[in-house]
Amino acid sequence: MGTSSERDAWLKLAHAQRLGPRTWRPLVERLGGAEAVVRATAAEWSAWLGEARGRRAARALRAVDVHAVLAQAARHDQQLITPAHPDWPGARLAALADPPAALFHRGALPPAGAPVVAVVGTREASRAGLAFARRLARELASRGVWVASGFALGIDGAAHQGALESVDHVAAARGARTLAVLATGLDVDYPASHAALRRAMRS
């Protein structure tokens, strides 16, 4: 189980302004973890990146208020996971060129090894498209498959709704769930029309 200090270090890396994964990830690998990178002094950053960039990076990390990040996530019904968590989906993210330092989500995380299918699509779906996405997600969830999407309007919302319907009526005993991986800012409740869906997905 990761410690809160490890989690906080990853959150600092995730939220530091103008300090992207291509800069900090090699340092995490070289130093053996996010905590070592976050603890680095301005002088060490300057040695790694040059005087100006190094000092900017050090200032950006110091400016991240982790407690504010956690409080804001809680206010908007968002949960989070970092590589410090034992359920971090590292293998599933390995194909990305710049894997994130944190993921914000709604809904319970699938257990290790559980089948997960992403159902995503356009925000401007036809009525037939929405009905199909909802039916597909309901059928998947009824068979114990977890349905992941992005909580957006259109196909995403229909997929979450279909999976929830299956949980309510068919597959509760099988633990079927739906998971929303969130792309909006922590202070954004988007879309507003999904308020009921957001409440239903609280885990």
Describe what you observe in this structure.
With 203 residues, the chain is α/β, with parallel strands linked by helices. The chain has 10 helices and 5 strands. It has a 5-stranded mixed sheet, covered by helices on one side. Helix 4 packs across helix 5 and helix 8 runs parallel beside helix 9. The protein is elongated and about 60 Å long. The two termini are 20 Å apart. The relative contact order is 0.12. About 4% of the residues have low confidence.
What's the arrangement of secondary structure elements?
Elements: H1 4-15, H2 21-31, H3 34-39, H4 42-49, H5 51-63, H6 66-75, E1 79-81, H7 90-93, E2 103-106, E3 116-118, H8 127-142, E4 146-149, H9 155-171, E5 178-181, H10 195-200
Parallel strand pairs: 3-4, 4-5
Antiparallel strand pairs: 1-2, 2-5
Q: How helix-rich are the residues, as a percent range?
A: 40-55%
As residue ranges, the low-confidence spans are: 169-176
Main-sheet strand order equals 1-2-5-4-3
SS content category: alpha/beta
The multimeric state of the shown protein is: single chain
The percent range for strand residues is 5-15%
The total count of strands amounts to 5
Major sheet description? 5 strands, mixed
**Which radius of gyration do the C-alpha atoms yield?**
19 Å
**Order of secondary-structure elements:** HHHHHHEHEEHEHEH
Mean pLDDT: 87
